[in-house]
Design goal:
It is built from six helices and seven strands. The chain is α+β, with helices and mostly antiparallel strands. It has three domains: 64 residues; 62 residues, Helix Hairpins (Orthogonal Bundle); 147 residues, Histidine kinase-like ATPase, C-terminal domain (Heat Shock Protein 90). It is an enzyme of class 2 (transferase).
């Protein structure tokens, strides 16, 4: 890519030099044509500059996309290896050691959580691919959205912080939705997982579901580092992740919020992002 950019700028510089040289030669031979040469030369330089600008912008965009895809592959590799290593260790411990029933149950329970994590990752990748290829039809039916949100928050709940809950749910029962239950479960899962991931250890994550002005309203609030104002809209782009990839501690694929945006658009729902106080981010979804 760098070699292509260097060649491009070399050819651009060569064209400008040739234009000036030929223009100077024509003016020397026929001074009366100076106005014509200046006019046509200016138009040519303007068009050349505009073309160079858009071509440079396209090359930079492609380079950024390639970098994001490389980061995506690295992140997916990490996301796959971590739970697989944990599952392998748990099974090896059960096989090699004479453990009591409670300890075996604990290890198997942790393995099931890691398997669910792998399942979420695979489902995200498949859903993102189908959405981008326009091969997913979003089949809609009426279902209990309150029950769905409750199940997801229970599954993602972390119980390693003493008696305190990491996820603090406030879910009004009986809220129904007409939509794609599978796709919307991915929306809730991605938002809650992000909130837990970016919050500090054992920091509270608020998940609230209620009826607002007659419409279902979902809020997920975290106490993480927050999202800069100039990145609040970019976070919904495919592969985009906040911050510098080289120093980022939290892992991820950059697909979650892309899926959230696409699924909600297909359900005529609006999502907004605002700052939490004193720190963190709040995602709010209104179903119309």
């Amino acid at each position: 890519m760098k070699k292509s950019i260097i060649i491009f700028y070399f050819l651009l510089l060569y064209s400008v030099i040739q234009l000036i040289s030929w223009g100077t030669l024509v003016v020397k031979l026929q001074p009366a044509r100076m106005a014509m040469v200046m006019g046509e030369g200016s138009v040519f330089l303007f068009l050349l500059g505009v073309g160079a600008y858009f071509l440079h912008k396209s090359i930079k965009k492609e380079e950024k996309l390639r970098e994001q895809q490389q980061n995506f592959l690295l992140s997916v590799t990490h996301e796959l290896k971590s739970p697989l290593a944990a599952i392998k260790l748990s099974i090896q411990t059960i096989v090699k050691r004479d453990l009591d029933k409670a300890r075996q149950t604990s290890l198997l329970s942790n393995s099931l959580k890691d398997i669910e994590r792998l399942d979420d990752l695979v489902e995200n990748m498949l859903l993102a691919t189908k959405i981008e290829n326009r091969s997913y039809s979003f089949p809609k039916e009426e279902f209990d959205f309150s029950e769905l949100v409750s199940k997801i928050t229970d599954r993602l709940q972390i119980h390693s912080c003493g008696c305190e809950q990491v996820i603090s749910p406030s879910i009004k029962p009986g809220i129904k939705l007409m939509g794609d239950q599978f796709a919307l479960s991915s929306v809730v899962t991605n938002l809650v997982e992000n909130a837990v991931k970016y919050s500090g250890p054992c920091a509270e994550v608020e998940v609230e579901l209620l009826q607002k002005d007659g419409h279902p309203f979902l809020k997920v609030a975290d106490k993480g580092p927050g999202i800069p104002d100039d990145e609040k809209m970019l976070i919904f782009d495919k592969f985009y992740r906040v911050g510098d990839e080289n120093v980022r501690k939290s892992k991820g694929t950059g697909l979650g919020l892309f899926i959230v945006k696409e699924v909600l658009q297909s359900h005529d729902a609006d999502i907004s992002v605002r700052d939490n106080v004193p720190h963190g981010a709040i995602f709010e979804i209104t179903f119309n």
